[in-house]
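ARCHIVE CARD
Drawer: 12
Card no.: 0347
Subject: one protein chain, sequence and derived structure
Cross-reference: see card 0346
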Amino acid sequence: MLIFIIALAALLSIVLAIRHVQLHTGFMAVVMTLGILNFGVLELPKYHSIFNGLIYYVTFLLWVTFWFHILVCIWKRTFIQKHTAASTNRFTIGTWVAGNSIMIVLTHHMFDSHHGWISFMAALNVGLWIAFIVMSIVTLGKGITEWRATSLHGNLFLTTVSSQSVAIMLLTIFPQTPILLIVTIIMMGLIFYAISFLFITSHFSFSNWNATNCIFHGALSISGVTLMLSGLWPMENLVMLWLVTLIVFIIIETAEITVLVKQLTKENPFQVIFSSNISHWSRLFTFCMFFTFTHSLSFSSPLMRDVSDNLLSALGAVIFALLILELISIVFSYAQKRA
């Protein structure tokens, strides 16, 4: 089955190249979203339903297609121009690392076995993460002077998301990984969160609001999941982190709704609601990540358990509603381009 999908992905990448279609740098946000939806919301590690399998193979197809597309970009010498020329866009490459991590973890759980090629892909992903972190550090250093008049957004937090995703991948694929290395990676992720927070808040413009600001809480959620899986923090500390994440979630999503309402009053509501943008997948990812973090916790207080249960029900409904809306938006956008 996987061989067939790889062949199909190669064919799709050829079609994209012939039609001169360029996939966005953040395309792997789709893989991240479908991956964490399958892993955290639909609980693939526990259940292997037909629905789990369908989403897995669709995600695998998109993942392989993207990497074939990157190889085509390298061959055509358009990689730098498309993906790294703009300094703020470089952070979006963090989706490549996180997308790889979730795909590798999903594959491990999907087949309930450990294959050598999975370990090889995990090792390559660690190398990609190191390269991304080095590039991010250099870019942040230059950004101190270069970004004085630039509005920054939540994609900087992908330094945190990518780091925590690698820690989760290592805990899953290489459980014998020294705990000191896991602690180091997690701490790096948290340090990058603090640095990114300072950069974004000091270069913030509400008029230039971007949907990737949802990663303010998404990066906290994945940090919480990583800390839980590693067993480094007691449940009491994780609940405190969850409360902080909940507060950030409410603040950011309230701002998001405010921006949406303003757009609906100024622009064509139909166009606003059914506009397809890769950043919308980032929002879906963060919602799924917060769902996963909430679902993984054990609350000692009956009140907190009731709150979390109701929150999970609401989040689940919102996640699938947003997913359906985004799929409709893709069809609508494609139809508009063809018209």
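Annotation on reverse: The longest helix spans residues 302-338. The chain is about 75% helix and 0% strand.
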